[in-house]
Specification:
The chain is α+β, with helices and mostly antiparallel strands. The protein folds into 2 domains: 78 residues, Beta Barrel (OB fold (Dihydrolipoamide Acetyltransferase, E2P)); 104 residues, no CATH class. The chain has 7 helices and 8 strands, in the order E-E-E-E-E-H-H-H-H-E-E-E-H-H-H. A hairpin with a 4-residue loop joins strand 6 and strand 7. Helix 2 runs parallel beside helix 4 and helix 6 runs antiparallel to helix 7. The protein is elongated, with a radius of gyration of 20 Å.
């Protein structure tokens, strides 16, 4: 059976070697979700693909969609947004890579990926003046919401210094695994860039989200802790 030719747009989530001259590129597309394509001869000196894609690029692409298997053959690619600002700010690049990794793991297939695509495309745009830790908190909160995993703080007692939060149920209250959360930490999670949110409150919010993520999607906690350290130092 002949392969179907698919025309779409994609954001480069990852690039890995396939052979000495070829790559496997994983894209986030708005209509097919995460898609992996084989780019044959990608690094040959006369390859038509040279300079046409890199991490976080937004591109127009054509690929042959194979009926069996998850690896498709890239036919054509043309960059639309190359996001030079991410090559000039290593902290922004690290944060972009973490966001792309989360999206690759969590984004659904098909048209349900459209809001994920829109969010990532906007997140990768330059946001001068917004601290990286604030962007991390906002990004993780939005992706948890898109995945249907957002923590529920409706049972928080605003008059208490802290409220128990059940990680297993994802809401305030007791449970098999419980942590404590304060009203100020919740405020920092919801609005990390508000003028009255202090740095230590943002760090508490980031720690809570790290524990929540590692519990619900089994993210390696050491990698996340290292990321937060890089963003605040």
């Amino acid at each position: 059976m002949a392969s179907e030719i698919v025309k779409t747009r994609g954001i480069v989530l990852s690039i890995r070697p396939w052979s000495r001259t070829s790559h496997v590129v994983t894209w986030l597309t708005p209509d097919h979700g995460p898609v992996s394509t084989l780019v044959k001869g990608a690094v040959r000196p006369k390859s038509a693909f040279l300079g046409q894609y890199d991490l976080f690029y937004l591109c127009d692409l054509l690929y042959y969609a194979h009926a069996s298997g998850d690896l498709h053959a890239l036919r054509e690619v043309a960059p639309i947004k190359i996001r030079d600002h991410l090559r000039e700010n290593w902290r922004a690049s690290v944060l972009a890579g973490y966001a792309a990794d989360l999206v690759r793991e969590l984004a659904p297939p098909g048209l349900e990926a459209s809001p994920w695509f829109d969010f990532l495309d906007n997140f990768l745009a330059p946001e001068p003046g917004i601290p990286h830790l604030s962007r991390l908190i906002s990004m993780e909160t939005k992706l948890l919401d898109l995945a249907g995993l957002a923590p529920d703080f409706s049972g928080l007692d605003p008059a208490a210094p802290w409220t128990p939060f059940s990680l297993d149920s994802g809401r305030c209250g007791s449970g098999a695994r419980t942590v404590r959360i304060s009203p100020r930490t919740v405020a920092a999670i919801k609005h990390p860039d508000a003028p009255d949110v202090r740095q230590n409150e943002k760090e508490d919010a980031a720690r809570f989200l790290g524990v929540f993520l590692s519990y619900h999607i089994e993210r390696p906690p050491d990698i996340r802790r290292s990321l937060v350290h890089l963003l605040v130092t």
